[in-house]
Amino acid sequence: MPDSSSPLYIDNAATSFPKPPEVAEAMHRLIREISLSPGRSAHSFSLAASRVIFEARELVAGFFGCPDSSRVVFTSNVTEALNVGIFGLLAPGDQVLTTGMEHNSVMRPLRHLEKTRGIHLDILPTDPTGAIDPDDIPGHLSKKTRLIIINHVSNVTGSVADLEAIGKRKGGALLMVDAAQSAGIFPLDMEAFGIDFLAFTGHKGLFGPTGTGGFLLREGLLVPPLKMGGTGSNSEEEAQPQLMPDCYESGTPNTLGIGGLAAGLEFINKTGRETIRQHEENLTRLLLDGLSLIQGVTVHGPPAGSARGSVVSLTMTGKSVADLAFVLDRQHNIMARSGLHCAPAAHRSISTFPHGTLRLSPGFFNTETDIQAVLTALDQISAGS
Ligand SMILES: Cc1ncc(COP(=O)(O)O)c(C=O)c1O
Q1: Alpha carbons 160 and 15: distance in angstroms, whole number
Q2: How many CB atoms lie within 10 A of CB 301?
Q3: What lines the ligand 1 site, CB under 6 Å?
Q4: What is the rounded end-to-end Cα distance, in angstroms, of the chain?
Q5: DSSP-derived secondary structure letter, 224
């Protein structure tokens, strides 16, 4: 068991830590060896930087079942990616179908457009554990439904949306998926699942650094860009180029971060996405089994046996979740997150609003020993010792 002086990180739903050593090595090499401004000059450093971005784009496309890497767009995180899609695709009078489990990176732009652009929101009901029923979707669709937005794996409960079933029931609407918690861990195939707009973040399950993310567009889907400016292409024109993906990537990109993200993807390809998922699933099962034996603990989320991501939300009788996280951190050197996890809607859906939960999110680099240490600490807190 780790001694209480060695920090134990179990907050991988916020960002994965540690990153594979290959990610740090790739970034260290890139920042030492080349200037990182791609596509702006014809010299060899600029060409090398363009190659870094191109290779990362190819890796992302291959990873998500997209046959054309020019439909992969890099952004600074999934929030920016979702904003491009939400602001770009919705017009006055459009209806949006979404769920009670969405993150504020979906809910805030939607609530803003509800006020300023006159869109209409329809929120699919969840059961008390946060699960939606794909069979509810057809009854909520109308001719005005432009977009269905689904959080693939909840960052609050770990509940998993059945994308394949949802894709089959989307009717004439576009399907946008927030894959912040699932990318790199769960199977995600754009074409097979009928996803039109797939938004991902680079710094969680894909093992990239913070400041990376992006989206993939279904062929033929046109979305106006959110920002305009220099792209290094069509520089003679003052109009924004139409070229994919340049039209979305104005400004010097985060070449260093994108290079790190590519190393993260290579790590997943080498290790096996399924191996990673299995390991996380085992740790989560161990955690859930142990929590069921601790006095006063309630776990909020999918029932035993259903599909779930490696996110466990809990409350403890007589203790505030803020205190739990504080004591774990200060007395046991265990880093976990308490509160609403930027998803108040999800906490309303599972009746843990306004205080939220303590969230434990094991990652690939956690061990069974880590889980035992977390359980021992929570048991001691519960016993008041
Ligand atoms: C489901 C979900 N959506 C969106 C986000 C936002 O991610 P980012 O901060 O990388 O944009 C998160 C991260 O916390 C998340 O868990």
Answers
A1: 19
A2: 23
A3: 77-79, 103, 105, 151, 155, 178, 180-181, 201, 213, 342
A4: 19
A5: -
For residue 79, the one-letter residue type is T
Does pTM surpass 0.90?
Answer: yes
Dist. CA 363 → ligand 1 center (Å): 16
pLDDT in tens, the chain (385 residues): 445 568 999 999 999 999 999 999 999 999 999 999 998 888 999 999 999 999 999 999 999 999 999 999 999 999 999 999 999 999 999 999 999 999 999 999 999 999 999 999 999 989 999 899 999 999 999 999 999 999 999 999 999 999 999 999 999 999 999 999 999 999 999 999 999 999 999 999 999 999 999 999 999 999 999 999 999 888 999 999 999 999 999 999 999 999 999 999 999 999 999 999 999 999 999 999 999 999 999 999 998 888 999 999 999 999 999 999 999 999 999 999 999 999 999 999 999 999 999 999 999 999 999 999 999 999 999 999 7
User: For residue 210, which atom of ligand 1 is closest to its CA?
Assistant: 10
Q: How many CB atoms lie within 10 A of CB 191?
A: 13
According to CATH, the superfamily of the domain at 8-19+273-383 is Aspartate Aminotransferase, domain 1 (3.90.1150.10)
H/E stretch holding 297: strand 297-300
Q: Which is the closest atom of ligand 1 to the Cα of 213?
A: 10
Closest ligand 1 atom to the C-alpha of 155? 16
Matching fold, domains 8-19+273-383 and 21-271? no
Q: What are phi and psi of 156, to 5 degrees?
A: -105, -45
Nearest CA to ligand 1 atom 2: 180
CATH node for 21-271: 3.40.640.10
Phi-psi sector, 251: left (phi>0), alpha (psi -120 to 50), beta: left
Q: Please tell me the residue having the least CA distance from ligand 1 atom 15.
A: 180
**Please, are residues 340 and 118 in contact by the beta-carbon 8 Å criterion?**
no
Residue 316 β-bridge partners: 297, 319
Q: Is the dihedral of CA 76, 81, 83, 87 positive or negative?
A: positive
The answer to whether the CB of 144 falls within 8 A of the CB of 165 is: no
Q: Please state, in angstroms and rounded to a whole number, the distance separating the CA atoms of residues 275 and 377.
A: 28
Domain boundaries in the chain? 8-19+273-383, 21-271
